[in-house]
Design brief:
The protein is α/β, with parallel strands linked by helices. It is built from 13 helices and 16 strands. About 35% of the residues lie in helices and about 15% in strands. α3 packs parallel to α10 and α11 packs parallel to α13.
């Protein structure tokens, strides 16, 4: 594996950016080595600065559900740029994308576009506080909601304690607006709500937690959240920045048929361009300025290039059987890897939902909370990541991150990738590669 160009670019980048990157998840600190610098993407493949090709399961951390450089998305972007990149004023393209989303997603009635998932969550939290007149928010350990100050916190020492900042620069007073409880623990949530019910504006959760492993929750648990929040006049926020339009056009809300009060989106609705959104009922959304008294603004909100890219991508996602086909190909890929691991007695399991998957080094049948992940297992991922790169497979450089299958990952490509992953597992765990495709 050649890395001369990536290494040279990284050395230069370290003069410009903290740690040489513009987002910490791009660093290779947890897997070792130099971050790869990419120069091209097409379909399910990416090429690094040294000219090496990889089957890409990062997909820009999820938004590229059609793969890289999809013709219709590219053409929509080029056409939009030809008319201007930004106006700071309303455009027809905002209406077109909003109409497409709202006519095909019965869980929201109005939407507001922003420029990132973090901005969407920040705005949703402010909206919930404005609607309820309450200050506190409950989040769950193991769920990530962007780098919002009030949500970049970890659990305290008891069942019902305020959060502790997990980043420098966040005042204690801000962290004290958030209560952090364990996932999949009904008693902990009941205690927190009992102690602070009249001060809690919202409970926010990734209904498909996919930022700290794939911590799949049961439908019954999510229904419990819906019931207990409704009984106490607390708004339920689904953070669907990853799961929205990924497991289905209506996201996890549609997958589980549960209607939260507010939903946040990102990733896929931009077609690879920076975008986010939040939506809710008309009654709740009318609290947003200029109609209501909850202020939220953004110069680049509804950017016409992002709107055009998102509309082109989501139109493809609405094609018949799109999501069923995505799920079936992913299930076949995941099933083959799991059968191989069992046959070779390797402590490895792939969890999946829709076209999202996660490599876990465990014998457990389910992992529903972050404390069930063995930190030592990340050493296995570190070794596997290195071998996979050498074999032409690219995953995000962290064992806590999930992978994604795009429509460009054909059955043939997934079969090729499965064979390469099996061979890599055999090498890491010193097993026979017998039966490897």
């Amino acid at each position: 594996m050649q890395r001369q160009q990536s290494e040279a670019l990284f050395e230069e980048a370290k003069r410009y950016f903290p740690g040489g990157v513009n987002s910490p998840v791009r660093a290779f600190r947890s897997v070792g080595g130099t971050p790869l610098f990419f120069e091209k993407g097409d379909g399910c493949h990416v090429w690094d600065a040294d000219g090496q090709r990889y089957i890409d399961f990062c997909c820009s951390w999820g938004p590229l559900i059609l793969g890289h450089n999809h013709a219709k998305v590219r053409e929509a972007i080029v056409d939009a740029v030809g008319l201007g990149t930004s106006f700071g004023a309303p455009t027809r393209k905002e209406n077109e994308l909003a109409k497409l989303i709202l006519e095909n997603n019965r869980y929201i009635e109005m939407i507001r576009f922003v420029s990132s998932g973090t901005e969407a969550v920040m705005s949703a939290i402010r909206l919930a506080r404005g609607v309820t007149g309450r200050p506190l928010v409950i989040k769950f350990e193991g769920c990530y909601h962007g780098h919002v100050d009030a949500l970049l916190v970890k659990a305290g020492s008891g069942l019902s304690t305020f959060g502790i900042s997990s980043s420098a620069g966040i005042p204690e007073a801000v962290a004290n607006d958030t209560i952090v409880v364990p996932l999949n623990d009904r008693r902990a949530l009941e205690v927190a709500i009992s102690d602070y019910a009249h001060d809690i504006a919202a409970v926010i959760i990734e209904p498909i937690p996919a930022n700290n492993g794939l911590l799949l929750q049961t439908k019954e648990y999510l229904e419990f959240l819906r019931d207990i929040t409704r009984r106490h006049g607390i708004l339920l926020i689904f953070d669907e920045v990853i799961s929205g339009f990924r497991v289905g056009f209506s996201g996890a809300a549609g997958y589980y048929d549960i209607r939260p009060d507010i939903i946040t989106y990102g990733k896929i609705i931009g077609g690879g361009m920076p975008v986010g959104a939040y939506g809710a009922s008309r009654d709740i959304m009318r609290h947003i300025a200029p109609e209501g008294d909850v202020y939220q603004a953004g110069t680049l909100s509804g950017n016409p290039v992002a709107m055009a890219a998102g509309r082109a991508q989501l139109t493809e996602c609405l094609q018949p059987d799109f999501y069923q086909d995505q799920a079936q190909r992913t299930e076949a890929f995941v099933g083959r890897l799991n059968r191989f691991a069992v046959a070779q007695q390797i402590p490895f399991k792939v969890f999946s939902i829709g076209s999202i998957f996660w490599f876990a080094f465990t014998a457990k049948e389910a992992i529903r909370s972050s404390d069930e992940i063995d930190p030592k297992s990340m050493e296995h991922f570190r070794a596997l990541h290195k071998v996979l790169l050498e074999r032409g497979i690219y995953l995000g450089p962290s064992g806590y991150e999930v992978g994604f299958v795009s429509s460009a990952h054909t059955e043939a490509v997934l079969s090729e990738a499965a064979g390469l992953i099996e061979a890599a597992l055999a090498a890491v765990f010193n097993r026979s590669a017998e039966g490897v495709a």
